[in-house]
Target: Heptaprenylglyceryl phosphate synthase
Amino acid sequence: MLKQMYRTWQHAFKIDPDKDVSDEALEALCESGTDAIIVGGSQGVTLDGVIDLLSRVRRYTVPCVLEISTVDSITPGFDGYLIPSVLNSEKREWIIGLHHKAIEAYGHLIDDEEILLEGYCVLNKDAAVAELTAAKTALTSDEVAAYAQLAGRLWEMPVFYVEYSGTFGDMDVLKQAKDALGDKTRLFYGGGIDSAERAKQASAYADTIIVGNILYDDLKAALATVKAVKTL
Ligand SMILES: CC(C)=CCC/C(C)=C/CC/C(C)=C/CC/C(C)=C/CC/C(C)=C/CC/C(C)=C/CC/C(C)=C/COP(=O)(O)OP(=O)(O)O
Ligand SMILES: O=P(O)(O)OC[C@@H](O)CO
Ligand SMILES: [Mg+2]
Model:
């Protein structure tokens, strides 16, 4: 059950259903000691791609959750569902609009124990997700911290996600977000973690680090990020 699990996560791999990963690489990732596999991406996510990846990850015992990016690619069978809301989007649809429509259509199917809201702050202007969601990425650390305080201490969202997808972020920004968040909300960090060293740096402030792109470019380096933050 997602709501019982996510608070213990220190590390997760995010695997994109739109990208190729070999069976050998997938086995190494799933058996690495990571806390969870997140299936998600912002481009080219299809139902077929999601089902294919889910069935392959299901050969292993690692928890597997879907980070929903389109309604059409939701399928049963995951251990839980993460719902991103891009707090610094200039467009209402990415904050609450698509969510409202989805709840109207599928709200009756939702198991509250398996669904988790993530307040995203998207900070790399060059990431596809920033363009897609019209994120206002040029924010000062105080402005990011204000989103963290809002998401954490006021709204008590389960997760605040500092997202630098594609590049390693500013650790001072991450620290300030942590300080502003309060103790109800888990801080997720993702973006440019491509070594044990960077994994350690980010996990000094983030409760959970998310590792994505490097798993396609350098599997060994990706696996090293697990050992860097977890005592196995
Ligand atoms: C049958 C069954 C199991 C039913 C379950 C019912 C259920 C769970 C219903 C869902 C209800 C609900 C509220 C759904 C939300 C609908 C929705 C589409 C919301 C919008 C989400 C959103 C803001 C998407 C934008 C993209 C985004 C933030 C994706 C997150 C992943 C991410 C940031 C990937 C990074 O992107 P990447 O591909 O790596 O690309 P770049 O590196 O280039 O950025
Ligand atoms: O792909 P990277 O840059 O590792 O980022 C991970 C994750 O935060 C993407 O949503
Ligand atoms: Mg990516």
About this structure: The domain at 2-229 is CATH 3.20.20.390 (TIM Barrel). The CA atoms of residues 39 and 66 lie 5 Å apart. The two ends are 22 Å apart (CA to CA). The beta strands are 11-15, 36-39, 64-67, 80-86, 115-122, 159-163, 186-190, 208-211.
